[in-house]
Design goal:
single chain, alpha+beta, 2 domains, 12-stranded mixed β-sheet, 24 strands, globular
């Protein structure tokens, strides 16, 4: 097992390396303002046998979770996804049954994922090597996950420390878990937000533990697409003094200037409009760079986007949208939520920012959406939470600039598979419209339970009355036609007699 804990400070923060205490069993230091990343790499034999057996049936598996709470971060930890749990994977066999994977995912909470129809297919329109199947579920916190995982992974002399580290997940803002069959290794990364925290890292009883206290730096020869880092590193049990570090790497995810908010226009009705308000339209790079802004939406089954409506160029232009680059399939435009099997859908929209002097001002984007019918409720309304989208500028993309060498690289976020491997994503920071949550709540009108029984009766009565009306019209028409025929026949016979 390999373990790496990184404390990443703002660029202007100072700390004396001599304040670090490096012992054979731990590293301690003063309280500093920093974000914290904890990364663990495990091989299959180091995992519980049941989990290792599950992974051996998969080509790859990627779990991504993000908190619905707003938080501050720093480069190179700028990447964003919609709040909730994102699961993407590729099975080794085509007739793979997802029930085994779904059972393991219940560690996060009660997830409805046992049916193959719940997952959507990601193969179309994505880069080769992208995961094949995808599932999303709302997930507020990791408290339950930490509690359920403790008895499975924490044992032996270090069990108490293991459980403590798991409990710390309740304050994490993101969690990544990845497996690929090529390396047969599992990588787990957790991130905690920028705040004042004490440096305290115990040694891992089963492997190597590296500790870094870093911030932005400027090493010689650093190129424009790279991020420089400086600070100190230490390996518990191997080093007695902190070692200076200064290096640069190409970063796939960067921080763009400005911020955005998301809200539903009022009144919402059954065809709500999601409004994205951005503080600036200025691209992150100069005008010669090929950059365009995008919004990647993760929409639970209660709401969806109509791909045919988003194909109208004039309609899109009126909403400050350039194109719908991707809409996951299938999306049934008529089915109510309670008969829809898929978890929901993903949509990638290219935005159309204002040009010239207007680029420095606030601007808005309107995304037309549609609510599905829900089951009747006692109140006649149901509340639904729609996660904030990820909003970013995508720049470049054709040239491979070596993102894989970054020690903080992040892949398989859903939208990155829709772009060329060399694309740089400049993320616009999300700001809550109100409070501190990155969730848009919407009230969905539904049939009241007491009145729902009359819907069937009313429908039957309406059909019966309609049938009687049509029948009467037919009989009236037949009677009139028959009378006219008899009169005409009598008239013809009279003419013959004359």
């Amino acid at each position: 097992m390999r373990e790496r804990i990184t404390y990443f400070r703002p660029q202007d923060a100072d700390m004396d390396p001599n304040q670090l205490e490096i012992h054979d069993t731990k590293v301690q230091g003063p309280a500093i303002e920093a974000l914290k990343e904890h990364k663990i790499t495990l091989t299959l034999p180091e995992l519980p046998s049941e989990l290792a057996g599950l992974l051996r049936d998969l080509e790859e598996l990627h779990l991504r979770w993000a908190t619905p709470a707003s938080y501050n971060t720093l480069e190179p930890f700028s990447s964003r996804i919609s709040p909730g749990l994102h699961v993407s994977y590729t099975p080794l066999k085509e007739d793979h049954d997802p029930e085994k994977l779904c059972t393991a995912l219940q560690a996060f909470g009660r997830l409805d994922c046992s049916s193959p129809d719940v997952f959507i297919n990601l193969s179309d329109g994505r880069q080769p090597g992208s995961p094949a199947l995808f599932f999303y579920n709302e997930l507020e916190k990791l408290d339950g996950f930490a509690k359920r995982l403790g008895p499975v992974v924490c044992s032996g002399p270090a069990a108490a420390e293991c459980r403590k580290q798991l409990q710390d997940l309740k304050d994490a803002v993101s969690l990544d878990m990845s497996y690929d069959s090529t390396s047969e290794s599992v990588k787990i990364q957790a991130l905690w937000p920028l705040q004042k925290r004490e440096i305290s890292v115990p040694a891992s009883p089963k492997g190597r533990t590296e500790v870094g206290i870093l911030s932005r730096g400027a090493p010689p020869g650093m190129e424009a697409h790279e991020i420089g880092v400086s600070g100190v590193l230490a390996v518990i049990g191997e080093t007695k003094e902190p070692s200076p570090a200064l290096f640069a790497f190409a970063a796939r995810h960067r921080a763009a200037s400005g911020s955005f908010t998301s809200k539903f226009q009022q009144p919402t009705g059954l065809h709500p409009t999601l409004q994205l308000s951005l503080s600036t339209a200025a691209p992150p790079l100069d005008e010669d760079a090929e950059c365009a802004p995008y919004a990647y939406l993760t929409l639970p089954k209660v709401i969806f986007a109509d791909r045919y409506q988003l194909a109208d160029e004039l309609f899109l232009a009126s909403k400050n949208l350039a194109a719908a680059k991707y809409v996951s399939e299938p999306v049934d435009l008529e089915a109510p939520a309670y008969t829809t099997k898929e978890w929901g859908s993903n949509v990638l929209l290219q935005l159309a920012p204002p040009k010239g002097k207007a680029a420095a001002k606030d601007w808005t984007v309107e995304v037309p959406l549609h609510l599905r019918y829900l089951k009747p409720s006692p109140t006649g309304k149901e509340e639904a939470g729609i996660p904030y989208p990820a909003v970013f500028w995508a720049c470049g993309g054709e040239e491979d600039v070596g993102y894989a060498v970054s020690p903080f690289d992040r892949l398989n976020l859903g939208y990155d598979g829709l772009f060329s491997p060399g694309t740089t994503f400049w993320h616009v920071s999300p700001e809550p419209e109100a409070g501190d949550r990155l969730i848009n709540n919407i009230s969905v009108p539904v049939v009241t339970e007491g009145a729902s029984q009359w819907v069937g009766v009313g429908t039957a009565v309406a059909v019966a009355l309609g049938f009687i009306w049509v029948l009467m019209k037919l009989m009236g028409g037949y009677a009139k036609s028959g009378h006219d025929t008899v009169a005409k026949t009598a008239e013809d016979e009279g003419k013959k007699e004359k």
